[in-house]
Amino acid sequence: MVTSLGPVAESVFALDLYGRQGTAHFRDWRKGVRERLGDRAGDAEKWSRSVVPLAGSLWLLERRNELAALDDQARQHAAKAVFDFCQVAVVPYWHRVRRHLTLTRDTWGRIEIANGVQGLLANLHPQLHWDLPVLEVPGEPDRDVYLDGRGFVLALSLFLHGKSCVVLDRERETGLPALIVSVPIDAAAATELWGVGGSGDQALSALVGHTRAAALRALADGCTTGELSERLGICLAGASKHATVLRKAGLVTTARNRNTALHVLTPLGLALLESRGAATELTELCA
Are residues 111 and 120 in contact, defined by beta-carbon separation less than 8 angstroms? Predict the structure, then answer.
């Protein structure tokens, strides 16, 4: 059970959500995204409805060959649309979204401890039906997924709104089947997530630059240089450069194991994300 499959996965669902109406608890989020997009707001709505519909973009989250479904140009267009949308719609809120999902995961963890895996599966979502040994998922294409002893990844999603869940045959990182379950939010959670209007995020971007601010948020749960590159949609060299600048500023610490570098926020970096007042004290460091 994982908190989330990451910002890119949430962006796939968020782009689909952006093109739909009737989601009251996401109204302030949609307003903030529209402001950040500016003249590109109409393009994002077109992307969500025609270029990158949810059913046609799940390949971004799966480990499989999609050449039969999309040609190279279409895949590149779809991937760019999702990564561009990620920067304005998910990354600015990522540390809050992840905190909300972490709290939900911890609650589910307590249910599992008290009632076992079967108790957890029976309480995942009102629309899911657990009938040992089968978990029935409504709204998905009619097919059977056999685990054959492999287990599966259970992930949470905030932006998978309006659907109970999504099933992936082979999740990109692990290659295992994955069940991504929608986490509902109420008015209080919506206010905490986006009611403040993102003023602290603007201050952070002004301090370290838009991409490095995005990098700092993407590092909230720690990641390798390759994962940072994927989350930001930039090359490895660019991700490494941003991590180096943040490390020199004392915002990130890096642990190396052979050819892999794992970047984690320092207490100062975490404080910068959480506290708007702390940002002004670091202007000289990140110039």
Answer: yes
